[in-house]
Fold this protein.
Amino acid sequence: MTGRFNASRTPFSGLILLTRKRLADDRGHLSRLFDAEGLAAYGWLGGIAQVNETVTLKRGTARGFHFQRPPVADAKLVTCLRGSVLDVAVDIRKGSPTFLQHFAVELSEDNCASLLIPQGFAHGFQTLSDDVQLLYAHSAPYQAASEGALNLADPRLSIAWPLPLANLSERDSSHAMLDAAFEGIDL
């Protein structure tokens, strides 16, 4: 436990499930979404280069799997502010003992959970409710030339999505399936 977070390590090196502690009274509550000093104990390497928000209107919608290649590979802190999602991180670190395995967890406004995703993971999610709002803190700025992606339906990843994949963007549905030549990314 560090500061305003309870942390649970996952079977994946560097991938941490955080639960925010809420300070509540009759007016409502306060929870800390980001704490550089507290998150440093779990591998956050510095400040925030970008903060992004997604709002997804329909249940079952899937987005991802996106990642950034070095030299701008980024860590992400993903938080659900409204609704709920199945949040999934896929290990794509070359040589990792958990290469191409995934970790999936429900993030919701009710459970106060966030996922701290280190460099070398692809990230995606599926909405479990309508009207979902996610907030992402990124350790490095987005650069289109360094972007990579995996297909959400790739059978090699063995993701058990709770709902049929729906409302995929043209971009996300066109990501190639992995082939035997994919060795991951070097960090």
